Amino acid sequence: MQEQQETEFTRKRLEMVHSQIVMRGISDQNVIRAMKEVPRHRFVPIQFEEDAYEDTPLSIGYEQTISQPYIVAYMLEKLELQPNHKVLEVGSGSGYVVALLSQIVKEVHGVEIIAELVNRSKFTLQTLGYQNAYIHLGNGRNGLPQFAPFDAILISAASADLPSALTEQLRIGGHIIYPLQKNGFQYLELGIKQQNRLEKKLLVAVRFVPLVNNST
Ligand code: SAH
To answer: How far apart are CA 216 and CA 192, in angstroms?
Structure first.
């Protein structure tokens, strides 16, 4: 019975990757492979398991959401990830993006401000056996200086500014992608770090939960 259910989830996941990811133009083979492998249904609350491969964000409790699969794939592709990279995700929530990253790069660190989500995502990642993935409790606006520099940074919550600690913790040539809040709208922006500045590119309109400002 359970085996049958897992086969059905796998079928839905492969269909999701084909219709929502590949057909919409994502071509990074490592991103595609990771999306085929990571069981998104294990990262959502049990009552949403059946919806895990729909083309939509889903609630993960605490007024937070797991992002739409396509947006996640889009952000990962823009980071131009390499197998030897060390990556930071700010706002790691359910741990889904961290799990994907763990299948693409050498080492991934997620930072999350809600303790319950930290505990739950750690448990999920451990149960599924992701070894090179670490979740930390804290305010992601400060980054994780003890693990810097990062080759790439992905921010999963929207802010009017890009916290300076994060660009400081990015290596020269590294890519950072983040949703920027501007005049009531949100846009994804990609930054590539140069010697003395960040070269920025405005991408597509998006909707993310806010990056909270607490000093905890
Ligand atoms: N990538 C996550 C998305 C979670 S939604 C996933 O796949 O599930 C964004 C997350 O950012 C939420 O869990 C929220 O609690 C967290 N967040 C918001 N502000 C934060 C901050 N300042 N520091 C760390 N995490 C933050």
So the answer is: 28
Q: Which of 58, 63, 112 to mutate to test the pocket of ligand 1 (most atoms within 8 A of CB)?
A: 112
SS3 96: helix
Query: What superfamily does domain 2-205 belong to in CATH?
Result: Vaccinia Virus protein VP39 (3.40.50.150)
Indicate yes or no: pTM above 0.85.
Answer: yes
pLDDT tens sequence across 35-69: 999 999 999 999 999 999 999 999 999 999 999 99
Does the annotation mark 59 as catalytic? no
Give the ranges where the chain is alpha helix by DSSP (H).
2-16, 29-37, 69-78, 96-102, 115-128, 164-168
Pull the structure tokens for residue 86.
């060390």
